[in-house]
Amino acid sequence: MSDKGTVVLAYSGGLDTSCILVWLQEQGYDVIAYLANIGQDEDFEAARMKAEKLGAKKVFVEDVRTEFVEEFIWPWVQANALYEDRYLLGTSVARPCIARRQVQIAQREGAQYVAHGATGKGNDQVRFELTCYALFPEVKIISPWRIPEFFNRFRGRKDLMEYAQSHDIPVPVTPKAPWSVDANLMHISYESGILENPKLGPQRAVQPWLLPLSSGEGGGGETIHCLAVPPGSDDDDVGGELV
Question: What is the pLDDT of residues 24-43, one digit of tens each?
Answer without folding.
Answer: 999 999 999 999 999 998 89
